[in-house]
């Protein structure tokens, strides 16, 4: 029998409005919970996940800080796990007709509709599920000793993560404004959002999912404690050797490529299927949407080092310093601004 939401969890739902509020990162209204900032609407769902979700030993969880390769990781993991039923070369492959976010759901999203039941209970195993939740708020059952679940975490250079977050927020604000204009009930229209203000908020950790530093560091430390259960990947290294990292990813998930598949180049075909160029050309990614976020907003450049086209060297050095101080002594480091 699935666990149910108790009185304490319901009480936590009821005090969301009393949590610290940040309104300067439009179009998101952020609330601080457990030391992290979340869009206000998903906080009840995060509570419901911890109370209701029942993990299975075969579950694979895809973890990222927002705008750190989430869409790409979803596509790669989905195509790898389901390659027997959906060969990457097949013209009817789901990723040729659907957005990766429709193929791999976020753990916290479905509970907005079904807060008192396990929204993933009906999915067949192995389940591939994504989330942006920090380690400290992840369901204790997922990381419990003997649970058997696998966690794959992708980190990205904070400078690129910031630029992608800011540009995504601007696109989302435009879409939200358009939706508001069509509503019967008028809502505030998001204002323009400059990079300087966004940068200050990001450095201070006041951004969706922020702060980034403890988010990344907690999973880095978990990967060092339990390397057989937590795989820590770098977005930049994945771009540099996508096929090699595909092999690592598949082996970690327990579905390594066979010798026959290696000879047939299956890993390379998956990489091609999931490339940003291929995904951009999928009709569903040109015209579809996730709520009021257009699917096309999830596909920008997918490059490493694009921050240099937007940020000043002074801003980059400042953010590098913030990150270096936060990660000192951890063994984890990001490339300095001048090396890009």
UniProtKB/TrEMBL annotation:
<protein>
    <recommendedName>
        <fullName>Sulfotransferase</fullName>
        <ecNumber>2.8.2.-</ecNumber>
    </recommendedName>
</protein>
<keyword id="KW-0808">Transferase</keyword>
<dbReference type="Pfam" id="PF00685">
    <property type="entry name" value="Sulfotransfer_1"/>
</dbReference>
<feature type="domain" description="Sulfotransferase">
    <location>
        <begin position="57"/>
        <end position="331"/>
    </location>
</feature>
<dbReference type="InterPro" id="IPR027417">
    <property type="entry name" value="P-loop_NTPase"/>
</dbReference>
<comment type="similarity">
    <text>Belongs to the sulfotransferase 1 family.</text>
</comment>
<dbReference type="InterPro" id="IPR000863">
    <property type="entry name" value="Sulfotransferase_dom"/>
</dbReference>
<dbReference type="GO" id="GO:0008146">
    <property type="term" value="F:sulfotransferase activity"/>
</dbReference>
